[in-house]
Amino acid sequence: MKKARRTFIKKSGLAFGAGALWLYGCGPGDSGGQADDAENDDAAASPKEMFFKISLAQWSLHRTIRDKKELDNLDFAATAKNVYGIEAVEYVNQFFADKANDQAYLAEMKKRAEDNGVESLLIMIDNEGDLAATDVKVLNQSIENHHKWVDAAAYLGCHSIRVNARSDNPDMAEAAKAAVDGLSRLAEYGQKAGINVIVENHGGYSSDGNWLSGVMAAVNKPNSGTLPDFGNFCIKQEDGKCVDEYDRYRGVTELMPYAKGVSAKSHDFDGEGNETNTDFRKMLKIVKDAGYAGFIGIEYEGGTLSEDEGIKKTKALLERVGAEI
Fold first, then answer.
1. 91: domain range?
2. Is 84 in the same domain as 64?
3. Does residue 198 contact residue 122 with C-beta atoms inside 8 Å?
4. By three-state DSSP, how is residue 239 classified?
5. How far apart are the C-alpha atoms of 111 and 100, rounded to whole Å?
6. What residues have CB less than 8 Å from 269, skipping those under 6 apart?
C-alpha cells in the first residue's frame, strides 16, 4: 500500500512536506530507510528512456484530411501536439499539392508548427514523377518537379524530402542506373538548400532491399539516404494482392545503414496491443542495432480501427517496446 500511495501522490503532483513524512514512518528520528525505499520505488516507476523519438506521419490521418475533410492541413501540427502529445511531424505533399510555391501558405504552416512547439521533419513527395525512370526526358522532368519541394522543405525547417525511386523498366540494372542518376542530381540540388533526399521502400524495385541499398551505395552522397518503412515490401501486386513480397526484416536491415528516418507502418493489432503484421520488437531491435537514434514516425494505414485509435495504439506499442529494449 505504501508504494501505491507514493505512486498516486507522485502522479498527482503533490509535494512531500516535512509534516507529511510521518505518514510513511519517516518522521524526525527515523532511520530514513523507508525514504530510500521510496526513492527506489520512484526510480522503478519512472519510464525507461527510449533510444528513439516519436514523430507523426501525416498519412496516418489521410482519410480524416482528404476524404472526411475533418482536418485541415494547416492544423496538422497542432493536432499532433495537442491530441497525441507528439512534437515532430512528417508532412505529405498531397495535402498541399498546389502550395509548394505559395510563400504565404508555407509561412502559415511554419508559424503554426512553431507556435505549438512542433518540429517539422520532412515532406513525403508523391505524384511528381519517378526518380528511376529510364526515359531521359521523363527523368529530367521528375527531377525538376522535385526542386520546388526541396525549397519548400528548407523554408519549413525540414531536414529531408522523401521521394520515390520507381521505374517501369523490366531491367533491374537499367532501373538502378537511372535511380543513381536521378537521385544523385536531385541530391546535388538539395545539398545547396541543406536538404536530404531520402528514398522509401515504396513499391516496385524500391521494395527490394538489396536493390535499393545498392543504389544508395552507388549514389554515395552525404545528403542522400533512405526512409525504411516497416511494411512497404510488396514488389509486385496482381488484382490488389501482393504476389512478390520481400522479407521486411531483411529489407529494413539492408536499408538502415543509409537511414535518415524510419517509418513505423501499422495496420492491425491483437488483443495485447501488438501489430499483427510486423513484430515491432524484432524490428526495433534491428533499428537500434544499426545505431539509429533519431525519429521513428507513426504511419497508421489500417482500416479496421479509426485513424485516431490506430495512431494511439501504434504510439503505445512503440513506447512499450521501445522502453523494454
1. 53-324
2. yes
3. yes
4. coil
5. 16
6. 275, 276, 305, 313, 317
Grid cell digits, residue 30: 527515523
- Segment 9-22, tens digit of pLDDT: 333 333 323 333 22
For residue 279 the three cell numbers come to: 513484430
pLDDT along the chain (325 residues), means of 10: 35 32 30 41 56 98 97 98 98 98 98 98 98 98 98 98 96 98 98 98 97 98 98 94 97 98 98 98 98 98 97 98 96
Residues 13 and 149 in one domain: no
Distance CA 159, CA 120 (A): 8
CA dist 153 and 211 (Å) reads 27
Whole-angstrom distance, CA of residue 142 vs CA of residue 165: 11
Q: CA 28, 31, 33, 36 torsion: positive or negative?
A: positive
| DSSP assignment letter at 229 | B
The mean predicted confidence, pLDDT, of the chain is 89
Q: Rounded to an integer, what distance in angstroms lies between the CA atom of residue 223 and that of residue 33?
A: 55
Residues 6+ apart with CB under 8 A from 317: 266, 269, 273, 274, 275, 280
Which grid cell sits at 273? Answer: 496491443
User: How many domains does one find in the chain?
Assistant: 2
Strands 241-245 and 119-124, by their bridges, are: unpaired
CATH at residue 92: 3.20.20.150
Q: Is 301 exposed, middle or buried (0-12, 13-18, 19+ CB in 10 A)?
A: middle
